[in-house]
Each structure stands twice: as C-alpha cells, then as structure tokens.
Design brief:
heterodimer, A: 351 residues, Rossmann fold, 7-stranded mixed β-sheet, 12 strands, globular, B: 385 residues, alpha/beta, 5-stranded parallel β-sheet, two-stranded antiparallel ribbon, binds thiamine diphosphate, binds magnesium ion
C-alpha cells in the first residue's frame, strides 16, 4: 500500500496529466529533493521557490487569477502564519469582486505534532484555517483519502487548503488507490527517487485512476451506538484504535473522520449524535478557541434535548508551543489515554 | 526637507506653487545625487537624460491631446467622487488626482483584453487615470463610490477606486498595502508560459515599498533564467498618509533597490505625461522583447491629500500636472483655451449625469452577504450544511 507521501505524489502526477495542473511549487519542492517529505518527487511541473512564504502564496494567487491550476506548498504550517493576510485575500477575492474572480488554487502544508518536532515543527492550523472565509479546508487521515481529497481540491474552483498530518506521511493505507500497483515494493521502485545521484532518474508512474473524495463529506470509520467521536487527521487514527480496544470491553464507539473542516459534514454528525446522545471531539490544535467548539455549539443548539451527556472537546493545551521533551509534547497534544478515559467518563455520565 | 509639510496654504497661485515645488523636488534630487556622486546613480542619469531630451514633439499632437483629454476626464471624475463624499452620499473617498500624467499613459499603452495574452494590471487605489484611459466609463466608478448593487467592480462591497474588471485583466484592487506586488508575479508567470508577450504591470505607493511583498517582487521577478515579464512601478508622492519620504527611506531612489537585483530601472517625472509615456513605452517594449522585468519610479503629486479621512482638500503646494501640461500644449498652440474648457465642461456634465443616474440605482440586499463566498454560489453558510 502507498503511504501518504506516495499517495500525494500519485495524485499530483495524475493531475498534471489529466487535470491541467500546471505548477507544483514551494521550498525544496522541485528536484532533486522533491519536498521535505518527498511528496513531490519526480513531478514534471514541480519547482523550487525562493524561501519566501508570502511570495509562494502570492504566486499561487496570481497563477489562479490568470486561470491556471496550481498547488503551492508551505514547507511546514509553522511558517504559514506570515501569509495569513494573503490567505484572507485569496479567500475574499471572489466575494469582494462580487463573483468576478475565483481563485482555483490549492495550498498544501504539513501540520501537527507527533514527530518530536519541537516548537516550530508541531503547530496545527486547522482551527486557524476555519476562520479564513472563502477557503475549503481538508485534512486526510489515510493515503486513499489524501489522494481523493487532493484531486477534489485541484478540481475545485475555490482556494482549498490541504492539511497534511506530518506524522502520517509514512503511514501506509489499508485500501489500494485505484490504479496503484498491489505490490508495495513495485510501487517503491517505480516512484521513489533513489538515494544518491538522481539527475538521470525518471519515475515510472503507474496508470492511476480518477478517485474523488467529495469535499464536505465525512466518513464513519467505526460504527457504534453509545458515543460519537469526531476527529480528523492524526488523531482520527488514535480514535479508531481506542474504539477497537473498547469494543473488547463492550463499549460501542462510533468514529467519524470529518475529513473536511470547511464545509463540514453536519448531516453525518447530527445523525450520529442523535443516535448516541454523546459526543467527543478530538483534535490537536489549541483549545482556545478551537474549531471543535463550533461543532459543540451546534450540537448543543440543535440536539440539546437528545443529549445524554455534556459534549466534550479534547484539544491541544493552550500554551505557546509544543515543547521538545516527550514529557512536554505528551502533556500538550491529546494522547490516546485521554481519549479513552474521556469516552469512559462520557459513557458513565447520565442526565 | 519641506516635504514633511503638506499644507493647504492658499496664498500662492497654483502656477507659483508649481514652480516652488519643482525647485524643492529638484533640490531633493540634487541632495541625493551629491550623496551618491561617486557612484553616479544611473537612475538619476536616466531621469536627467530623459528630461533633457524630452519635448512635446516626440509624440504626435493627436496623442498629446488624447492624453490631456483623458487626464481631464479622470480629474473631473475624481473631483466628482469627492463631491459625492462631501454631499454625504458615500462613506469614504480615496483616489488619484495628481497622478494623471503618469496613470493615463499606462492605460493608453497597455495591451487591453482578458486572459494571459493581454496585459494584467495590478493596480492600487490611485489608478482612476489608468482605468479611464483603458475605457472605463465614469458611471461605473461612481457606482462603486456610491456602493450601488450595479457597481461592476464590487457590487457595493468595497471602497472607491477599488476596481476589478476581469474583461480588461484589471486584478482586484485591495486595501492591504503592497500585496499586488506579489500577486503580479503569478500572472506574469502564467503569461510567460503562454508565450504571447503580454506583461503584468504593477503599481503602488512609495511608503508601501517597505512591505515585504515589494521585496518578494524584486526577488522572484529577477531569478536567473527565470525572469518574469513584469513592469514594476512605484508612484512616489513622498507621502505615506502623514509619514514623509525621509521618515522611511534610506535609499536615494526607490528605483535603486531594483538595481541590486539586476533589474533595469529608472526614475521619471510622473507629472510629465510625455516623459512618462516615452519611458513606459520603452520599458514595456523591453519587457515584451526580453521577457525580463523592468522598474520605473514615477515622482507624482498627491493633490487632495491622502483620502477623505484627511479632508480631501486641494493642496496648493504641489505641481498640478493638468495645469502644467495644459500650459505646454497652449504655448505650442496644439490646443486652444476654448477647446480645453469644452473638454472640462463636457466631462463635468457627463459626471453629473452619471451621478444622478447612479443615485437612482439599487443597492445591495442584506441577503446577498452570502453570495459569492464560493464559486457558482455553492452554499457557504454553515447553518445550511
Ligand atoms: C498593510 C497595510 N498597512 C496599513 C494600511 C493603512 N494605509 C493605507 S494607505 C497607507 C499609506 C500608503 O502610502 P504609499 O504606499 O506611499 O501610497 P500613497 O497612499 O501615498 O499613494 C497606509 C499606511 C493599509 N491599507 N495596509
Ligand atoms: Mg506615497
């Protein structure tokens, strides 16, 4: 199975061949490195930019304004903050021009902790992004969704932010991407750049198929009856693990992979919470204020009388950074044990 | 430096003031050239060589008269916008009176049209002269000023002079200072790929060159073997709201910064439409031919202060390019007083009529706030997800 970095690469290759993707660019995105997570290796349209995040976002806006499709990368979301006003402008251009200029651009950036990345390689951006209107914001938790969401992002006529959970870049999927060779080794030989001199290397791209994950649609990854856990990105996998473990003790957990932060799949959350009466939201962006709070607000507004317990959010602690020592990181970003005890507490709670 | 004072001293005649300001600007140039004598700033040399060779004769009379006509039209429109503000029919005015001699030639010379085979215009909020020269009608600017639903640029959503006209590749004017310098890189990149010799033209103010996006523009436009077809311009009116040029700039000319990136660069008197026209033509031709960037700093006036926030009053101590150019054309007998007067009155009537019409047009509805968040009006209201 492809890992997420390979899935992204395959999606970009499919798009440059079939979706008129003209440019994939960012710091170290082009040859020889092909991105710090190797997600852009071997592409025809990839190129290295100056070390200038504002320049990267501006360039993408201009390319989109001229009508071409592009994917721009910010090397780590920790360095996207000086572009926020450009992201604002990219998101408000269509609105400010009363529908005249849409900007079909995709920005991808690695997010989150989990690789002992210390302060400046551990930031999250999903909650920040939820406040930048005019953007669609997606965050896959597995390679197949990464492939399908990226194709949808590139096809979308709006700006789309594609958040890559950096700790999942090397994690393999459980399902084949349509067109992906079944043999993992074969895939590796065909599309991973060799160590050492790459100047003559050319990838041998598999014949990938179009596979789209609709933006705005979540996915139920575990079916259950007693509680709904909504998560996305890296923490979705932790939620799945906890659900599997609790199953053994006869606790039935429904897990929703939200996949899209905006627009989000309210229908899926509503149906699930109406059934279970209990909800826990899990993500690693900081807790004040967190996108999960918006979801909880909506749960309370629309499902108040069906709730059996107070909705709960587990998110990153409201401190300035994620410290390097494991004691610091683990105390800052949500851990599996916290998710498990929160579920058990919620299940015990009675109105 | 006397530039730290924009007063509205009414005692001097406009002409006398023009002379005074001209001397002041000259002395500024002199002072900086003295500082830099050893290096012999070629920006100054270029500026000098243009002004020493400049003459009306370099352009056909027809073009000269066309420029004056458009300059007057733009001024009349801006003065009408200010009157609309004064009458309480708009909330805010900002615009470009004083930049006509520079802005009009840009609009005349641009390759007008939609898409990568035509020039892209990344303008800021003082570019009515360029838009008028490109054929925008007065009423559309007035609709924007009066936040009508019929305002084709923003549908009543944004300030005066925040134009957007995709049919002419007029990229949306936005309020955050300087961002257009970065965005222009992207259209230039796409134009280069299309290979049709179209260019991206970006304008902005002197104070705004301190923003990082201006530096981004110089860096990205000049990468070796990856140069971009972009005309980078700065309208230097020596002011950023109330901050004087000397209060911000250590460089002699802003144009000098481009030279550090091996970008061809020059300074022009933006109060002289002939000098501006010739310089713009030369640089546009160069960019189309070579695919490389070029830079022009134009010294311009700011005739009604920064915006309505500072009163939008006529300043008396800066050159008025309409006056000086009219006088030149009159002295060479290229146009008569009567003809000039007719131009003014014709446009004044047009502007007044347009205002009366725009006043009767509809305004945006409250429900429309959700329109155009996403393309094709896809729902963006979370209450309806
Ligand atoms: C990023 C940003 N900062 C501050 C402002 C407020 N502001 C509006 S115009 C202006 C001065 C701009 O001066 P300059 O670039 O010289 O242009 P001019 O107005 O003189 O033409 C400022 C500070 C803004 N609009 N955007
Ligand atoms: Mg200025």
């Amino acid at each position: 199975m492809a890992n997420m970095a390979q899935a992204i690469r395959l999606a970009l290759n499919y798009s440059e061949k079939n979706l008129q993707l003209k440019d994939v660019f960012g710091q170290d995105v082009g040859a020889p490195l092909g991105g710090v997570f190797t997600a852009t290796q071997g592409l025809k349209t990839s190129w290295n930019t100056p070390l200038d995040e504002r320049g990267i976002i501006s360039m993408a806006m201009g390319i989109a304004m001229a009508g071409d499709r592009c994917v721009a990368e910010i090397q780590f979301c920790d360095y996207i903050f000086n572009t926020i006003d450009l992201l604002k402008i990219a998101g408000n251009t269509l609105w400010c021009t009363n529908g005249q200029y849409n900007l079909p651009m995709t920005v991808m950036t690695p997010v989150g902790a989990g690789i002992r990345g210390s302060v400046y390689h551990s930031h999250s951006f999903d909650s920040w992004a939820s406040r930048i209107q005019g953007w669609k914001v997606v965050m896959p938790s597995n390679p197949l969704d990464a492939y399908g969401l990226l194709l949808s992002a590139i096809k979308d006529p709006n700006p789309v932010l594609f958040l890559k959970p950096k700790a999942l870049m090397r994690v393999r999927g459980e399902e084949l991407i349509p067109g992906e060779p079944a043999d993992e080794k074969e895939l590796k030989t065909r599309i991973d750049a060799p160590i050492g001199d790459r100047s003559k290397w050319e990838p041998e791209w598999p014949n990938m198929q179009e596979y789209l994950v609709e933006i705005g649609k979540g996915k139920i990854t575990r079916k259950g009856e007693q509680i709904t856990v909504v998560s996305w990105g890296r923490h979705l996998l932790l939620a799945n693990e906890v659900a599997d473990e609790l199953k053994a003790s006869d606790v039935s957990v429904e897990v929703i992979d939200l996949r899209s932060i905006y627009p989000y799949d309210w229908g899926m959350i509503r149906t699930s919470v109406a059934k279970t009466g209990r909800v826990l939201i899990v993500n690693e962006d900081t807790e004040v204020t967190n996108f999960g709070e918006h979801l909880i607000y909506r749960v309370v507004q629309e499902l108040f009388y069906q709730l059996l317990a107070r909705p709960r959010l587990i998110a990153g602690k409201n401190v300035p950074g994620v410290g390097l020592h494991p004691n610091l990181e683990d105390a800052t970003v949500p851990q599996k044990s916290e998710i498990k005890s929160a579920i058990l507490e919620l299940i015990e709670e009675v109105p | 430096m006397s530039y730290s004072k924009t007063t509205t001293s009414k005692s001097n005649s406009a002409k006398a003031n023009f002379a005074k300001v001209a001397t002041k600007k000259k002395s500024l140039v002199k002072m900086s050239s003295k500082k830099d004598d050893s290096k012999k700033s070629s920006a100054l040399k270029t500026a000098k060589s243009i002004s020493s060779t400049q003459s009306l004769g370099q352009l056909p009379d027809k073009v000269l008269v066309q420029m004056l006509d458009l300059m007057i039209k733009s001024r009349v429109l801006e003065e009408r916008l200010i009157k609309i503000y004064r009458a309480g029919e708009s909330y805010f005015w900002i615009g470009g009176p004083g930049e006509e001699a520079w802005g009009v030639p840009i609009g005349i010379l641009a390759n007008k049209g939609q898409g990568v085979k035509h020039d892209f215009m990344h303008l800021h909020y003082r570019c009515t002269p360029t838009l008028i020269a490109m054929g925008m009608n007065m009423k559309d600017s007035i609709r924007l000023m009066m936040n009508r639903a019929t305002d084709p640029s923003t549908g009543g959503r944004n300030f005066s002079n925040h134009y957007c006209i995709p049919e002419m590749n007029i990229a949306p004017v936005t309020s955050p200072i300087g961002v257009q310098y970065g965005i222009a890189l992207g259209t230039a990149h796409a134009q280069k790929r299309a290979g049709a010799k179209a260019i991206s033209i970006v304008t902005g103010g002197d104070a705004g060159t301190a923003e990082g996006d201006f530096a981004s523009c110089l860096v990205w436009a000049s990468r070796k073997n990856n140069e971009l077809p972009i005309l980078i311009t700065v309208q230097n009116n020596y002011w950023g709201i109330s901050t004087s040029y000397e209060g911000q700039h250590g460089e002699t000319n802003i144009a000098d910064r481009a030279r550090g990136f091996n970008i061809r660069s020059r300074v022009v008197n933006g109060n002289d439409p002939v000098e501006s026209y010739i310089a713009l033509k030369e640089e546009m031709d160069y960019i189309r031919k070579t695919g490389k960037p070029s830079f022009i700093e134009a010294k311009v006036s700011r005739l009604y202060g920064h915006s309505s926030a500072s009163g939008a009053n006529l300043v008396q101590n800066e050159e008025d390019c309409l006056k000086s150019f009219s006088e030149k054309l009159l002295s060479k007998k290229i146009i008569t007083e009567k003809e000039i007067k007719t131009i003014w009155t014709t446009y004044e009537e047009e502007a007044l009529r347009a205002t009366e019409e725009a006043r009767c047009e509809g305004v945006p509805t409250s429900e429309s706030i959700w329109d155009h968040v996403f393309a094709s009006n896809e729902n963006s209201n979370w209450r309806k997800f």
